[in-house]
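S.,

Sequence below, as promised.
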Amino acid sequence: MKYTDTHCHIYTEQFDEDRNEVINSSIGLGIRRFLLPAIDSTYSERLINLASNYPNQIFPMFGLHPCSVKENWKEELKLVEHDLFNNSSNLNPVAVGEIGLDLYWDRSFLEQQVEALEIQINWAKKLELPIVIHVRDAFDEIFEVIDSLNDDSLTGVFHCFTGNLSQANHILDYGGFKLGLGGVLTFKNSGLDKTIEQIDLRHLILETDSPYLAPHPHRGKRNEPAYLMVVAKKLAEVKGVLLEEVSRVTERNTNEIFFPKQLED
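The prediction came back faster than expected:
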């Protein structure tokens, strides 16, 4: 069985002591690909270097995380634009991300977050790349943006989906989006399992969001790609299917969004 961790920040300092061991142990479990979402310029060099060191396993995204949209957001976006359009790193990004809206910590930059999101969505359209959406305490606001910009060319994933069934259906009605599932699926009181019971497996992909949101029974510890197997097993349980089916379908779903040429082979 093969798997892809479609969202992990294994370039951050939490992995400085054992990064290669973490990657290799995950590969040994069948996790063959790791997709790295960007945060902001403070992590760009780390992300690019790691992707360069593992060209067949690790794939970069470029974008500005909504929590990094601050006073200097326009300067940050210029750097993202350079990474996306100039390809000076000789790396081909698999997505524009992670981008979105986050009103959990601070609402004072909502207007700037919306503008940054709209700009990056339009870049994704020009480049024919999917988008990776981060949304926290902002479903209504982000739906307003996507509703206005969605068309047949827009694809992507709402990563770390934790919404309700109505919100899930709103996303899936766009036509080109999947839901990213991580450790929250295993949290006993999240209720996410009840929502996912009602969502077809063809709409779902797997992620860890490492080093954050480790699944039960590792909750509270550093998350890592190897724990993707915990999420996969929980998804198999929730959907009442074999683990092999989870692997087969989520890998196809991942290819549909991030590696469409592989579907043509």
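The chain has a mean pLDDT of 96.

Coffee later?
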